[in-house]
Amino acid sequence: MKVVKFGGSSVADANQIRKITGIIEDDSKRKVIVVSAPGKRYAEDTKTTDLLIELGKSIKNDQMDSQIYEQIIERFSSMTAELELEEQVLHTIKSRIDEAVTQLQSKQKNAMDALKSCGEDGSALMLSAYLKTQGHTSSYVNPKDAGILVSDQPGGALVMDESFDKLYGLREREGILVIPGFFGYTPEGSLVTFSRGGSDITGSIVAAGVQAELYENFTDVDSVFCVNPAIVENPKQLLSLTYKEMRELSYAGFSVFHDEALIPAFKKKIPVCIKNTNNPQGNGTMIVADLPEREEHVVGIASDKGFLNLYVSKYLMNRELGFGRKLLQILEEEEISFEHAPSGIDDMSVIIREHHLSAEKEMKVMDRIKQELDVDTVNIERDMAMIMLVGEGMNQTVGIASQAAEAFRKANVNIEMINQGSSEVSMMFGVHSDALSAAVKSLYHTFFE
Amino acid sequence: MKVVKFGGSSVADANQIRKITGIIEDDSKRKVIVVSAPGKRYAEDTKTTDLLIELGKSIKNDQMDSQIYEQIIERFSSMTAELELEEQVLHTIKSRIDEAVTQLQSKQKNAMDALKSCGEDGSALMLSAYLKTQGHTSSYVNPKDAGILVSDQPGGALVMDESFDKLYGLREREGILVIPGFFGYTPEGSLVTFSRGGSDITGSIVAAGVQAELYENFTDVDSVFCVNPAIVENPKQLLSLTYKEMRELSYAGFSVFHDEALIPAFKKKIPVCIKNTNNPQGNGTMIVADLPEREEHVVGIASDKGFLNLYVSKYLMNRELGFGRKLLQILEEEEISFEHAPSGIDDMSVIIREHHLSAEKEMKVMDRIKQELDVDTVNIERDMAMIMLVGEGMNQTVGIASQAAEAFRKANVNIEMINQGSSEVSMMFGVHSDALSAAVKSLYHTFFE
Questions:
Q1: Where is the ACT domain positioned along the sequence (chains A, B) (predicted)?
Q2: Shortest Cα distance, chain A CAs vs residue B12, angstroms
């Protein structure tokens, strides 16, 4: 049994729905399908989920932006019409949207999550109906019915362990099952969504639950590239990766796959394949638990901008038991998560994603550090970028750091920060944002050309 | 006015006392002298401080090891006899030792610190008496009388800010003042010692207090070397260093100068000169606040063994606000100070000096981490060594990391950890202890040959 997830561009219009039906028909093992909300049909198009969020934001008391509302209904009605589906399908989609709007107007808990989930739900309703018209046994399966139980963290739900046993029961059901991605239900029955792009998470959870032989993730690229194609033209495609490698790559700027999506599949050792809906015969990229030893030690270069360095210095810091803990506790109390915390003898840096530190919080945090920790210096350096070299076995290979550092030198880029030694499969470098592109190109040249 | 500190080997016997008297006479600005306890006269000799500690440990109720006691008295009596000092000098030294022994036998607070301080006190009493016999106006100044106020942390006292104003009053006193190093007094009048080697601290505090034009630190080497001479034969001598460079070098294995000793001089911008008692005409090493830009960016390579890596991994660690803080808090509660804490996405390493983690604490810490943090993996890797490259402006120079990493590669040494980015003047590398020597030699070859 294979679990197959189709991304937003794969369900963007009637033609794409027909295309993925073909893909499902090509392999009788493709029995459980997870879908995203209809995505962009052309570059300037708006994703259904963005429309739903905009609609939600426009709601005040019993008011709403009816133009956006009509735009959403139109997207679904044009698809159901072109696919010649029963009227009941559009009716169900519309009443779910209306219900969420009413919940929002009466300020019910998690109502925004309910509205945001209507895109995926609509895709699933349409696809299962279309599969039936093509002569297949198929049913729409709501995540509550499937057994996807999550924590009550709107927009950032975490799956609960009980889900997996329940999901195993899906194996017994007849025909092709279509499950909307992106959301689950709390044990109390409240709908909650995962973080954005969370259909990948649903797919991974379902694949783990039914113990699929393969989790296929269909998107709009042929494979995972070894570097950001916006920086390096036509980069090398990756045929295979380990889970760990993919997770580290996803974290720092690899948008092809959702950062946390792999975890459930990883834990149950389900192989994952990234494929292209528009080129389903291509190799794609296989992601597995273990790989035989490869010649190349560096398999990918991830990079991301938008970091800052909170720098603190204090004489005799290293004599002060608990200094590091106290600094991190201030950040925790202000709900600021950090990425790394390299430290010297009398100084400590904390690398934070810029969007985690608003101007208001920045003032407060700086004041608290000055007053509570009695430091000599505290300052913030913005416009930092992170570059991550990823590859299994890298940390056991003499000379990788040397090649990497030489690549920075050739590009005349100063390395502001190096963090190596904790992760077994990655090495992280901090540079100024304006040097990012030159550094990544030079690293690509060193390790892939 | 210059403050001059003489180390243990410079006051080891009567001949050395005569030698340093000559040094003091050579420069009329050498007005405040700080002395260590008599050190080793020959390689197999025992330092007076070690004898005093041994004596202290032998004390049970009204018992003590009288052989060690006699050995201590003999060291002082042979010196006072050879220097032809009044009997009163030896009598004073002996009664201070006897008093401390009595305090220890009656289990008085801080009595061990009182006993440990008798070496420095004896040196100061002998030197001031000898200076008088040579026709100088000189007086012994007890740290309490001088105004050295410290915190009540036996064996690890920290100086209090009030001390500096009081010490400034020493400028008004007549003649050559001789102050014993290594200890101060709490505001309640209790004698407390600094950490071992703390005479350097006394010298630095006094130099800062009297606002000396120079703090001269006489020891038994011609200068500070750029690398551990036990690893590289006849290494380059350093003519000048900044405070920051010296502090970073001292931290990781540079035993010539006490780790924290520089801070008081640093804060008051007093220049420090390291010189050799046995070659006072040599250049020595000057340590100052700022230096004109130098050609070389790396000025020293420090290295030290005896570290361990506490490694923890947990899926989604980076989603868990407070994880790092909680881990450091467990260490803090078990009173284990850490050196560095590099982190990956789902893992974190904490570098700890091995002697901070006893076998008993190790069990407890591992258990607490497993249970309280619900981690996937926790393990300890021992036999780690740290290498630190030090140099002002290093972090703004493209290519240093590249040269360093290449040196490791040439020596076929795998870099287990790199920590760069917090300190402006250093770059730290972790390697296995057995690779330390090869790596340091290769780095020396790269940066100094």
A1: 389-449
A2: 31
